[in-house]
């Protein structure tokens, strides 16, 4: 009797198919690659065989090999530096798609301002208001599309870091001598995989906010300064005062 692997019965990964060519970018942008699963789930309860095959980019062996290749060349390098050298292209791409998201987010209030001015000023051409309204709607659409793409991709990178590090830990544990295994408790291993590795996943998800938040704050500061002048400093002063308060409360709770 032969035992069939459930993965052999699954369909090829649709995301890999959509990302294999730039001509299929619309499937990635609009998430149509996931429609087959949604269609089946709408008709009946999903089973394991209804899912796609695991993407080759998400497999443990692939991620383990990527990390080990970098680690063997840089034995004394810190873990976070190894992760950066391994996944820097993925992080760079996710950061680049965040730029139009910030632009669309800032453009929305500017379009709204122009719409209000057009309504209140009869001397302005009426078609200008329609153009600003179209710009407002377009910026909202762009913001919605990019936000979901960014969150999906940055979360995927975080899971790649967690899976890769967990695989390395598991492989090293299997190669340890018995004398070393006796000194290592199960609690230490569980804490290392669940807590310590999880921190790198959390860092991966929020890493772009380190530069995106200040950039957005500076742009908004300039725009507000042009409108209300010196009063902008008082508003930002209140925000800066909240930073130490948040640090205090985070340590207390």
UniProtKB/TrEMBL annotation:
The residue ranges crossing the membrane are 91-108, 128-146, 230-249
Instruction: Recite the UniProt keywords alphabetically.
Output: ATP-binding, Membrane, Nucleotide-binding, Transmembrane, Transmembrane helix, Transport
State its location(s): Membrane
A single GO cellular-component term on record: membrane
Q: Provide the ABC transmembrane type-1 domain boundaries.
A: 92-253
Membrane topology is: Multi-pass membrane protein
The GO molecular function terms of this record are:
ABC-type transporter activity; ATP binding
Which Pfam family is one of this chain's hits?
A: ABC_membrane
Q: Do you know which InterPro entries this protein is assigned to? A: ABC1_TM_dom, ABC1_TM_sf, ABC_transporter_C-like
Hey, which family's this protein in? Answer: Belongs to the ABC transporter superfamily. ABCC family. Conjugate transporter (TC 3.A.1.208) subfamily.
Q: What is this protein called?
A: ABC transmembrane type-1 domain-containing protein
